[in-house]
Amino acid sequence: MSSTTPGAAPHADPDCVFCRIVAGEIPADRVHEDDAVIAFRDLSPQAPLHVLVVPRAHSRDVRELAAEPALLAHVAEVAGRVAAEHSDDGDFRLIFNTGENAGQTVFHVHAHVLAGGTFAEGAM
């Protein structure tokens, strides 16, 4: 678990694809970045706007991120800003997949921001 708060130096895992994106080793279509997080478009979008908000510091999942409430709140704040800037109405769905059985495929905490269009009630 990391001990990073917004603005602190990030911890990284050299084998993690998201750590490598954060470091600039793998390109991504970034829509936001600051000292604590980056946000980039998902390669397999599930909505007209599908952006991942990724803390720069490596934590496995949202349970670990919850130990850092300031960073978790910052992820949610950035998600709202990204939705407001990149979708028509600013409404969005924020999803954290936690664990393999829940659909997490990259074990670096990340929030999915889905927006644009209407979501079915009860879906996801």
UniProtKB/TrEMBL annotation:
Occurrences of domain HIT (ranges): 17-124
Taxonomy, superkingdom: Bacteria
InterPro entries assigned: Histidine_triad_HIT, HIT-like, HIT-like_sf
Motif (Histidine triad motif): 108-112
Protein name: Histidine triad nucleotide-binding protein
